[in-house]
Amino acid sequence: RRASRSDTMRCSGGTTLGVLTAALVLVAAHGGENAGILPSRGSSQGLDTLMGLLDKHSQNMNVQQLGELRAVMRQMRSSKQRLAVSAANPSAPPGTRESFDVRRRVLAADVDTAQQFEQVNKELRARGEVVQAYDPINGALSGGGLRGKTYSVILYKLAPFVIIADPESAGAVLDPGNLNQTRTPGNGLLSGFTIDLLETMSGELGVTFNYYYPCSVAPHTAQGVCEPSTASTALNWLKSGDTDPAMAAMYYGNMTQFCPDYRCFVAAATKILASRVQDFRMTQPFLDTGFVLAVNENKASPPFMSAFFPFTTDVWFMIIVEIIIVGIGFIYVEGYGTNEALWVAADVSELVGLAKVTGLVLGFLTQLYDAGYWATTLLLGSADKAPTTSAGRVLVTVQLFFALILMSLYTGGVATFLMTETLNSKVMKFSDFVDKNSFYYNKENTLCVPSNAASVAAYLATQQDVLVANTGVATFSTVAGVDVADCIRQVYVGDATATFFDAPVIAVQLTKMKMEGMCGQGGFCSNEIYLEETTCRDAKADWTSVKGSMGIVGNVFNPFGYGLAFKRGTLKRPEGWDYVGFSQAIQALRETNVVAGLSSQYVPDPAQVSCAAGAQGPIQLSFINISGLLTITFIILFVGLIVGMMEHITALCVKICPCCKPAGEDEKGEEEGEDAANDAAQVDKKNLIHTRITELQERLKKMESLLGVEDPPQDSDGVEDDKGDGAKGNAAADFFGGFFNQFK
To answer: Which H/E stretch holds residue 37?
Structure first.
């Protein structure tokens, strides 16, 4: 209030922002009327006062201050209080949809520069017009702010967003530029993502559209065709077609007639860029996307170690660790003499110092080698030893179960690996062209740039500036293409390494190529009517065979959004705020998944499309698939053979030359010889004693026979018979029997 009373008051931008921010917060918090700023529902005097102050001091605000002000506006927008300042419907009660103050929405959504901020305030006050808010519930603008209006839509052909059938004429009627509206969505001559979106918005907003596209007069007169137009062409025509006489005469149609009261906009796939926001009123984006990189992907040759690819390096490492752990377990439960089949470490009890430590380590490693071999054979299904302890049996059972699961997983992994066709390309992402540290970097790689794609050229120029600033040189090279389709064709035949453009456009082009057989072992005909090699050659046309399929690699980069570009007005001829209603309609259609449905309908996934060049033949193992496995097998076999040969050579050397014996072997041999001699002497003594005993037994038998001593008779049951004849020599038998037993 103080500032409004004194025009001579001078404040800094920051102080003014603080004062005005406080006032706006009061408006948001207390509903305007209670704060004493907005006197009544039907009057906008208080808000106009605030907007006048903002208008007066906006030029002194920097970007940070404007950002703070936008935050305040967002706070106001989220407030439950509704500012009842609608001049169009003064009888509306507070809080209804008809009483929304769209001016605060405009300030919050479109304040990007101080110039826009100033123009918003001046034109709102000058026009006294309030654009009603979009009502997503009822599907139209409450109060009829846009209902009944007709808008001119400037199109340009770009699949999948805008598809114009027969752009020079519609049937037998010549209509370049569609001045007579012979092409409409109703008759199918206009179609695409953006066309369907606009037709949906037409029903929601209660508006109608007339569709036009730039068609140059000179080329059409000379050749009967309209030159392909781009976003830049359509935007320039919208911007200057009614003020630049040369441009007005360049195209069919009169922009002054197309754009009454600025009810016109460009629609297709118009990117929302900072440069365009300064020249046009851009709606919020109806689709968010970005650039993608397109390359020719050839079928990759199987890697040398592909037999091991079903498991990653980490899995193979963990398998080796598991074998070592199980081997240590076997040493613990079976290695203390309980299992004679397991190697036992040498006795180092008599050693001391370093020699004892070395002996312990070597003994453990020797046991670990044997136990690890046992664990490995269990893993391969052929046990080398049998456990002798209960703990050992448990460990063997666990290892066998682990082997069963591991073999099943490896078998399934091999099947999946064979069923998957591996593709490779020269680059994997855009940074591979500029980053010398990238694995795929090669200074010979080239990018194809469509000559009609200003956004691609602008992005590359930015990247080159960054490279020059960092390295002093621009390290990547480019080749020129007519358009996106031409660049994709150059990449396909190998004239360029890659190209990039908008993700939906690239997806449509690559899908079309697959459906036409330009993939796999396919190619293309010089006469585009023929899609197969046989029919192409039968028609005496040239067939070009190409190996590989075009694909998208890497992630989306340089993200952006597509919006509708409305014509800007001037202070003398200000435009309306219709684009705000369109922005609200777009937001509602996005929230209700209408835009998502159109995206899934018009933007395909090339990876899910089968190649029309023919189905892939049976997948078979080749020599390269098992070359790595064979190499490792032969290396292990060679090591085993070398060890065996060394053992044989050592044994032969010992037999031929005593010098080959290890130190101490002679003493060991002498000791072993003495032991052997002692053993032989003992054997001889035992044999001599046995012989003498045998001789004595024979002599005793002869003496018994001479004395009449015989073996006592026995009954059939084996019991001696005391009544036999031999009883008469019992005394002599007892005497000599006792003597014989004593001798033995």
So the answer is: none
Q: What 3-state class would DSSP assign to 142?
A: helix
Q: Which residue type, as a one-letter code, is found at position 738?
A: G
Per-residue model confidence as pLDDT tens digits over 608-644: 888 876 544 555 666 766 777 788 888 887 887 887 7
DSSP secondary structure letter of residue 608:
G
C-beta separation of 440 from 426 below 8 A: yes
Question: CA of 478: how far to CAs of 427, 457, 502, in Å?
Answer: 15, 10, 18
**Mind listing the pLDDT tens digit for each residue in 122-147?**
665 555 544 444 444 344 443 346 88
Find the largest Cα–Cα distance for the chain. 169
Number of H-type helices and E-type strands within the chain: 24, 18
Burial class (CB in 10 A: 0-12, 13-18, 19+), 59: exposed
End-to-end C-alpha distance for the chain, whole angstroms: 143
Neighbours of 267 (CB within 10 A): 26
Could you write out the DSSP letters of every residue in 469-517? HHHSS---EEEEESSHHHHHHHHHHTSSSEEEEEHHHHHHHHHHHHHTT
CB 215 within 8 A of CB 252: yes
Quickly tell me which residue has 């754009």 as its tokens: 259
Is the peptide bond prior to 387 cis by the omega test (within 30 degrees of 0)?
no
- What span, in angstroms and rounded, lies between the C-alpha atoms of 127 and 571? 11
DSSP track, 428-468: SSGGGGT-TTSTT--TT-EEEEETT-HHHHHHHHHHHHHHH
Beta bridge partners of 278: none
pTM: 0.58
Where is 538: in which H helix or E strand? helix 533-538
Helix 63-78 vs helix 13-30: crossing angle, to nearest 10: 0
Please calculate the CA angle 618-407-619 and round it to the nearest 5 degrees.
5
> In 273-389, where does DSSP find H-type helix?
274-279, 313-334, 353-379
